[in-house]
Amino acid sequence: MSVTAAQGFLAAGIAAGIKANGNPDLALVVNSGPRLAAAGVFTSNRVKAAPVVWSEQVVKGGRVSAVILNSGGANACTGPLGFQDTHATAEKVADVLDGHSAGEVAVASTGLIGVRLPMDKLLPGVEKAAAELTGHGGEKAAIAIKTTDSVHKTAQVAKDGWTVGGMAKGAGMLAPGLATMLAVLTTDADVPAEQLDAALRAATRTTFDRVDSDGCTSTNDTVLLLASGASGVVPEAAAFVEAVREVCGDLARQLIGDAEGASKDIRIDVINAATEDEAVEVGRSIARNNLLKCALHGEDPNWGRVLSAIGTTSATFDPDRLNVAINDVWVCKNGSVGEDRELVDMRYREVRITADLAAGTESAVIWSNDLTADYVHENSAYSS
Amino acid sequence: MSVTAAQGFLAAGIAAGIKANGNPDLALVVNSGPRLAAAGVFTSNRVKAAPVVWSEQVVKGGRVSAVILNSGGANACTGPLGFQDTHATAEKVADVLDGHSAGEVAVASTGLIGVRLPMDKLLPGVEKAAAELTGHGGEKAAIAIKTTDSVHKTAQVAKDGWTVGGMAKGAGMLAPGLATMLAVLTTDADVPAEQLDAALRAATRTTFDRVDSDGCTSTNDTVLLLASGASGVVPEAAAFVEAVREVCGDLARQLIGDAEGASKDIRIDVINAATEDEAVEVGRSIARNNLLKCALHGEDPNWGRVLSAIGTTSATFDPDRLNVAINDVWVCKNGSVGEDRELVDMRYREVRITADLAAGTESAVIWSNDLTADYVHENSAYSS
User: Fold this and answer.
1) Which residues of chain A are within 8 Å of residue B291 when distances are taken between CB atoms?
2) Among A250, A368, B156, B213, which residue has the fewest nearby CB atoms (within 10 Å)?
3) Does the CA dihedral B278-B284-B286-B289 come out positive or negative?
4) Are the CB atoms for B268 and B355 separated by under 8 Å?
């Protein structure tokens, strides 16, 4: 399943020794064709890891024959030598796989920023991974890219004669400006690179892009979509976009569900906004309000903190016409006290906030998490 | 001391019963002249509490004869009835003080958003406070405006024949867009309203405005500056601005030092920026990065998280020329690994981050705090 759910793909996940604890840390995904079409979206962070700089160039050519992904080190802020390490990794993959060129090998890394990768372990790991490539290696590949993830994340949808599958990792530093963390999607549909690119951008814009667990944007975010054409089916464009969006949405929801230390998954529906951009701006402001995130952790339907978050945006609204529901109880009406807050049932993991801007007809959904002592512990007790 | 350090001011702080626990919750500051000049700066949050809307109008007239401040309730998001409560409070103050007009009485409130004030307790409290006004009541007034503050905050500077003093409250929701929380400054210098306004804006711009404890902007932020002229001294304009800035800076530093649940006070120096605005943007981005705030709580000099925060801004910089010092150890040089991070001594409460953008000659200092389990507890265990 995962990246090997679609025909025409091989994958492997192994322990190369990059992680000190001996857990799997190196994944290889190979497109065996007949087509090698690909597209990618990357972090909006201007401090980009070496593998992001490399893979952005690779994807520009519209062809990717293989993706090599490591956990245990981000290879970010490592200077020219770090970039050479990424280049050497792609060369090694091309060497061990017959008929591949380094310029068509994408590289992705995740882990601690500011530390060089142990190339003496990584390069032999590439040989080991290549030796273990199989048509059902998707699960192992998904496991090998985990960092603080408690579970591995995979998804797939089967359509009429073709399939889209994928894997993702991510449990913190989750506030993508374009994509999020590492994800590889594969399809056996016969789709050219330009159409893959359009589909991937459309899908990530309303899925990975609207996940905001902790307001922190990674240096390494990478989402790749590879098409093998092995099914021989040329899908209808809209159906293909919808399938890619479905897999991205499934994986994005899994990221939120596994966020570091979180006890609540928060769905924020901003409705009746003047524009979709304004709905997203308001949703992100609510998602990033630490005081609200603490209140929701304490199962306190503190709508005043929702209003104070909306008030810091530049979106169109009249403070006296704002309405806010928490779990469908309209606790704030016309900017003031609404239904009894005691009616809000906060016992479940999923919390739904609806912010009605009363300013138009556009809307957006942002997903976030609460702020907990466990999040503080996970991110203060050791470097990550 | 506090607001009664300058001549010409009376103050009182009493328990009106607004707070359930019986602690002091109502402060009154009266300017006995001969002048009644005043200026004010208020929250940039577009969701403004009723007392902010009221006091903005009062201050536009350039005259304030009295300020009434309550803790125990923000009177924010309370609709037209909440505004009537503020109006009634000002009328009550004008009634009990001979020769005052409600249009010259400023009102400030702080506490839980979305709850009406208990006017049956507040209005009798105004009479009680008026009866206790004295020329040394500044300390009691400072105590009465506390909410989650662990200590009351006062400051004063004495110049050649004139004085500026003040009080402030604030321990959370600290990310002023213009001012922060509640603060009242008084002076016996003879300064007209326009000059007070210029001095207050200049002073708050680099003090209260650059405090960013938790990224959350209040609905109630109010800073007032009242001049009695009682000293008869007309100070030189620059010296007056400097004195106001000194008092604001002192109070702002006290806010950070008492932030909810914090174990570290973080001073962020952004240097060599292209513009001062860009320096502030970068400083705020660093101040608001939850992962960095957790790392500093854990005494981990995690400079990668500083770079990832800088990378999300639109400031002018080249990622390969960024330098970062933590407690004066340059752990990141030219965007990559610098001096040994083991050299950084993180044992003390104050942590200093220096971010060198290598893009110009401008700079700014932002103050923040770490993110702790105690912050989560204080803001999740009960509504505030």
Assistant:
1) 172-173, 214, 216, 379
2) A250
3) negative
4) yes
H or E element, residue B38: strand B37-42
CA–CA separation, A256 and A259 (whole Å): 5
Chain CA centroid to CA A222, Å? 8
Token duo for residue A314: 């530049």
Q: What is the DSSP string of A226-280?
A: EE--TT-----HHHHHHHHHHHHHHHHHHHHHT-TT-S-EEEEEEEEESSHHHHH
* ipTM of the prediction: 0.75
The binding site of A for substrate consists of 147, 169, 180, 260, 379, 384
Q: Which CATH architecture does the domain made up of B2-257 adopt?
A: 4-Layer Sandwich (3.60)
For B291, the closest of A216, A290, A307 (CB atoms) is A216
Where do we find the tokens 């995979």?
Answer: A154
Q: Look at B217 and A46 and tell me if their CB atoms are within 8 Å.
A: no
What are the residue boundaries of the structural domains of chain B, listed by start? 2-257, 265-380
Q: What is the average pLDDT value for chain B, to the nearest integer?
A: 89
| Contact list, A114 vs chain B (CB under 8 Å) | 303-304, 307, 332, 336-337
pTM of model > 0.90: no
Give the up-direction half-sphere exposure of residue A158: CA atoms within 13 A in the CB hemisphere. 7
At a CB cut-off of 8 Å and minimum separation 6, what does B63 contact? Answer: B36, B37, B38, B104, B193
**Cα angle A20, A153, A121; round to 5:** 25
Burial (CB count within 10 angstroms: exposed 0-12, middle 13-18, buried 19+), residue B150: exposed
* pLDDT value for B178: 38
β-bridge mates for residue A268, sequence order: A353, A366
How far is B52 from B1, CA to CA, in rounded Å? Answer: 26
Strand order in the sheet with A37-42: A37-42, A222-227, A182-187, A163-169, A153-158
Which H/E stretch holds residue A337?
strand A336-337
Strand pairing report for A26-31 and A105-109: unpaired
Nearest Cα to Cα of residue B83 among B63, B42, B123, B55: B55
> Cα-flanking dihedrals φ and ψ of residue B49, to 5°?
-65, 155
Domains B2-257 and B265-380 agree in fold = no
Please answer whether residues B165 and B6 qualify as being in contact, where contact means their C-beta atoms are separated by less than 8 angstroms: yes
Q: For residues B147 and B149, what is the distance between their CA atoms, to the nearest angstrom? A: 5
Q: How many Å apart are CA A52 and CA B357, to the nearest integer?
A: 22
| Interchain proximity A298–B381, CB inside 8 Å | yes
B275: closest CA of chain A, how far (Å): 19
| Tally of CA atoms within 13 A in the half-sphere of A228 that contains its CB | 24
Maximum mean pLDDT: which of A183-192, A310-319, B120-129, B236-245: B120-129
Alpha helices in chain B, H assignment, sequence order: 50-60, 79-96, 119-131, 138-144, 193-205, 237-257, 276-287, 290-297, 303-310, 373-380
pLDDT tens, residue by residue, B338-379: 999 999 999 999 999 999 999 999 999 988 888 888 888 877
Tokens 């003879």 belong to residue: B190
The pLDDT score that the predictor gives to residue B212 is 75
Give backbone dihedrals phi and psi of A313, rounded to 5 degrees, phi first.
-95, 170
CATH fold for the domain made of A265-378: Ubiquitin-like (UB roll) (3.10.20)
Architecture category of domain B265-380 in CATH: Roll (3.10)
Q: Which chain A positions have a beta carbon within 8 Å of B319's beta carbon?
A: 46-48
Q: How far apart, in Å, are the Cα atoms of A90 and each of A27, A96, A209, A223?
A: 13, 10, 28, 17
Q: Quote the mean pLDDT of chain A.
A: 89
